[in-house]
Amino acid sequence: MAIREVLRMGDPRLLEVAVPVSDFDTPELHALIQDLMDTMCAEDGVGLAAPQIGVGLRVVVFGFDENIRYPDAEAVPQTVLVNPVIEVLAGDREDDWEGCLSVPGLRGVVSRFTRIRYTGYDHLGSPLERQAQHFHARVVQHECDHLDGILYPQRMTDMRRFGFTEVLQADWQIK
Ligand code: NI
């Protein structure tokens, strides 16, 4: 399959609302998911959404055992999630640093719901349901935002906590 170019912030395709997948277990869907996985791994991402490679479908992939971009993050299972729906399980939120392959070289603090349930389908159309918290929940919320044309800077409320990864690392604000 293929490592695809990741669109960067400023590209209007990242601001579009993606459409649901209607046909599962098709060669096109399998190829899309493989490309998303290949591209995510090549870029050391923890997740990637189809709109980031210019495909306006409600498909995200995420997961890792260890990740060099987020060394303190707990492992998240490798997941393909099609037509996802997020349900917030509690109103509590937490702030943490986020990055995005479409916003390279930068990190910002975003408030996300701490505990969620997410449902959707895998590439074959089998239903999937999971509860997640903390970093896992953050990744899912971040990736699903891409399907609604939302990049994490749009979620930020304190732009003082937005900066270049290298500078933040040098200042020990992030690892
Ligand atoms: Ni992203």
Brief rundown of the structure:
The strands form 2 sheets. The chain has a 5-stranded antiparallel β-sheet, sandwiched between helices. A 3-stranded antiparallel β-sheet has the order 4-5-8.
Q: Main attributes?
A:
single chain, about 180 residues, five-stranded antiparallel sheet, three-stranded antiparallel sheet, 3 helices, binds nickel (II) ion
Strand content: 25-35%
Number of strands: 8
CATH fold naming: Peptide Deformylase
Let me know the largest β-sheet. Answer: 5 strands, antiparallel
Which CATH C-level class is it? Alpha Beta
Small molecules held by this entry: nickel (II) ion
- The oligomerization state is single chain
User: Radius of gyration, rounded?
Assistant: 15 Å
Low-confidence stretches: none
The computed structural class is alpha+beta
Question: Biggest sheet: strands side by side, in what order?
Answer: 1-2-3-6-7
Question: What is the domain total for the residues?
Answer: 1
CATH superfamily (homologous) name = Peptide deformylase
Global morphology: globular
Helix content: 10-25%
Give me the number of helical elements: 3
- Provide the residue-averaged pLDDT: 96
Sequence of secondary-structure elements: HEEEEEEEHEH
Distance between the termini: 32 Å
CATH architecture: Alpha-Beta Complex
Can you offer a commentary on this structure?
This protein has 175 residues and is an alpha+beta fold. It has one domain (12-170): Peptide Deformylase. Helices cover 21% and strands 30% of the residues. It contains 3 helices and 8 strands. The strands form 2 sheets. It has a 5-stranded antiparallel beta sheet, sandwiched between helices. A 3-stranded antiparallel beta sheet has the order 4-5-8. A hairpin with a 5-residue loop joins strand 6 and strand 7. The radius of gyration is 15 Å and the shape is globular. It binds nickel (II) ion. The site of nickel (II) ion has 5 residues, from helix 2.
